[in-house]
Amino acid sequence: MANIEATYYPQSGFLAVLGAGESGVGAAILAKDKGFDVFVSDKGGIAEQYKSTLIAEGIDFEQLQHSEARILQADLVVKSPGIPEKAPLVQALKASGIPVISEIEFAAQYTDAKLYCITGSNGKSTTTMLTYYMLQKAGVNVGLAGNIGKSFALQVARSDFDFYVLEISSFMLDDMYRFRADVAVILNITPDHLDRYEYQLENYVASKFRILQNQREEDYFIYCMDDEETMKALPAYTTKAMRLPFTQQQVLVQGAFLDENKNIVINIPNKETFEMNIEELSLQGKHNVYNNMASGLIGKAMELRNQTMKESMSSYVNIEHRLEHVACIGGVNYINDSKATNVNSVWYALESFSPDIILIMGGVDKGNDYEMLRDLVKAKVKAIVCIGKDTVRIHESFEDDADVIVNSSSMQEAVEMASHLSKKGDTVLLSPACASFDWFRNYEERGDKFKEAVMAL
Question: Per the confidence metrics, is the pTM higher than 0.70?
Fold first, then answer.
């Protein structure tokens, strides 16, 4: 539900920030620099690094509570994307007509930099990082922000970039109104975080398509023609931006496609054509062809040199916790894909490796439908080792497809079990399909514990 008042938010006065993580503290610093009276409130504990930053900046804050009466005096509220709209305090703010916006929305009004914005259910981080890497190699003065890197607001306040590559989540988009992307990318849409969207896929889709709002004729909209939900929703959303689709299933006059020789071909009107064989890509697998197509379209829209793009796409190394190769021990490859917190991410991971796979999965189930994994599990997975608290549905879903399904009581035990179940030539893959908040603080800690356990074998 759009917060109508948010389109008319004030430029001065009392600003409250809800959440004191990376985005919240960055927003607080930018707000202070712009002359707001700033108060930061976090219902949980504030990490030491952020607390010391707030103290050093002279910004008033509280932790382990929300002083509701004080926050309801705010002229403007910047909310952490992790706080749901249904939270009582957010509901009270909106009932009082107080605009509630995201850090990205707040910061964008204070920069003239070009904004290249990437959203989607899967591949966001890889595509964002690849694009950032490509622009850096081209000598572009570029920042990296959003769901990844340093706070966008902090960089707007204290850095001076001409371009930003932003990884944008649906939670951020929900609180964005005036924001305009010079390039908007929707990689794909699959059911995820539906608990935040009343378990209605169309609500989640609508959230993703907010990335198109306010685009102009000189802007670009990049999307996947092979993605069912994107294409189903597309007719309902208009944009003035130039449309640049990408596909692996047909030839296009405008956009990116695969030719019969497995070359990625990129055609944008009035730009030089780009071609590169998929064998030359540093990131292999069908899903990474899509990621490279999306990044390549951004590069060509910016008129980067073909040689620079090829060098970037052939030398980029994937981000930590996303199909990250940890070690090869006794001929067994150990892969850390802890960032795979939904079923579709696991599908991509399984699609990237040949049999035989020992799959470590589980955690906090977000209402997962495991049906789409069954064929791949049947064809490629020889054993499943469950981690976390929600293991019943994994057993129920795959009891007919995997020969072995076992539970573990810790990440160390899970890795040891996987090691015993594997033989030379196998792959042990941590790709959980679930959130991490039962055993771990976040997916990074989960991935780090996996790596520690692997190195201890």
Answer: yes
